[in-house]
Specification:
single chain, Cathepsin D, subunit A, domain 1, eleven-stranded mixed sheet, four-stranded antiparallel sheet, 15 strands, about 10% helix, disulfide bond, EC 3.4.23.25, Aspartic_peptidase_A1, protease, hydrolase
Length: about 170
């Protein structure tokens, strides 16, 4: 962790800055999620030919203290179905998925004006018993996602308090 600076050796340039929309948290605009070649977001980028899945969330809180990407139950069901996962009956909040990442699609989060892609290795979480779950889970927040380390392991993040923005660069 660097306080008051940026370690350029930790990411591939450029840093892409997304404005903070609510200053209480590091909360940015969530425009949706693309799964594989299909759009799983509320508002697809212009020119997208796929019909968007209906997501309720409008913002995402970027949180280094959260492990998964947390979302309301409807969004979690939608996103997990799009990657081929099914709800884990034992917890009710986790979703089971194959551990074979070669058969799974990449996902792309659309934050502000930018798209940030995650390979299946980023969102498939191995369990102790040899099973796997996704990094997309249920929270009680109706219109915000909490984007944690499932995403932040793959993207170096910079929290610019003076300019009210969060920067992301592909981690190396």
């Amino acid at each position: 962790m660097i306080l008051g600076g940026v370690d350029a050796a930790r990411f591939q340039a450029p840093l892409l800055y997304v404005p903070v929309v609510k200053r209480k948290y590091w909360e940015v605009e969530l425009r949706g999620m693309t799964v594989g070649g299909g759009n799983a977001g509320r508002r697809p980028k212009q020119g997208a030919s796929d019909s968007p899945l209906d997501l309720q969330a409008q913002t995402a809180i970027i949180d280094t203290g959260t492990t998964l990407i947390l979302m309301n139950e409807g969004d979690a069901d939608t996103v997990n179905a799009a990657v081929g996962a099914s709800r884990d009956g034992s917890s009710g909040k986790l979703y089971s998925i194959t551990c074979d990442t070669s058969s799974l699609p990449a996902v792309t989060l659309h934050l502000g004006d930018y798209a940030f892609s995650l390979p299946p290795e980023a969102y498939v979480v191995p369990g102790r018993d040899g099973s796997c779950s996704t990094g997309f889970s249920v929270s009680s927040m109706p219109t915000q996602w909490i984007v944690g380390n499932t995403f932040l392991r793959y993207y170096y993040s910079v929290y610019d308090a003076s300019s009210h923005r969060v920067g992301f660069g592909k981690s190396i």
